[in-house]
Known about the structure:
Blueprint lengths: L8 E15 L2 E14 L7 E13 L4 E14 L5 E14 L4 E17 L2 E18 L2 E12 L8 E13 L4 E14 L11 E14 L5 E13 L3 E3 L2 E3 L2
Antiparallel strand pairs: 1-2, 2-3, 3-4, 4-5, 5-6, 6-7, 7-8, 8-9, 9-10, 10-11, 11-12, 13-14
Amino acid sequence: TILAPRARRLGNTALAEVQYAPSPRSSVTATTAYGNLHFMDVGFLDSSFWKFMTGYNYAVTRLDTLAVSYSQTRFYFALDQRNVVNHGFLTTYGRKLTGRLSLQLSAGPLFSRIAQGPGSSKTRVLLDTYDSLRYRLRRGHVEASFSRFTNTGSGVLTGAESNVVTFSLGHQFSRKAFGSLSFGHAYNQSLAPESALTPRSKFKTLYGGFNVSRELGERTSIYFVYHVQRQDSNVALCLGSRCGEV
Length: 246
């Protein structure tokens, strides 16, 4: 979610998930993922991550669901062998308010241990959450969501704490054509100051866009996507000797 100067990059992500349903009203899930981000231009931080998450889901009533999950994530950075270890719990409640309106609320503590040098680390307690309100239209949906999470920092920071508000509208034009419109605001800041003499880096971003897709056949679809983003920051982003806002 942090916009950086134009640069060549290569990202990979692999994910696996298993689910077991011991009863019609409950299920247990386990997910693991690995990803990396590599820049072919200087001035950025290469990173990789491992993530493991497991959870238990239960349908309390026909309208209410509860879930409890545990996750652990490790961020690795090429610079000075820095790393961040996150682990925490999340409790999620879902409620079908009406036939078309549904609500999801979740919150839990996230413990983030940030390496700050050989044999030195700092632990911060953060709030992890994802909340959404969704209304189902006859041929689409309207949704508002808020999420708070940590990530590797998009090649700019050694770990970032993100707060993202998103509004989206989706519409099914025909049996094979679908479109969506979304816009929102993201606030990112570094997990810890880059040094004892500097404040935490902060990035404020407004973004929006739309996409249209259409099935051309049983195995083929075509997509058109447009995205615009504007960002303000308390630090200058640099690529080599060129610095400035994006």
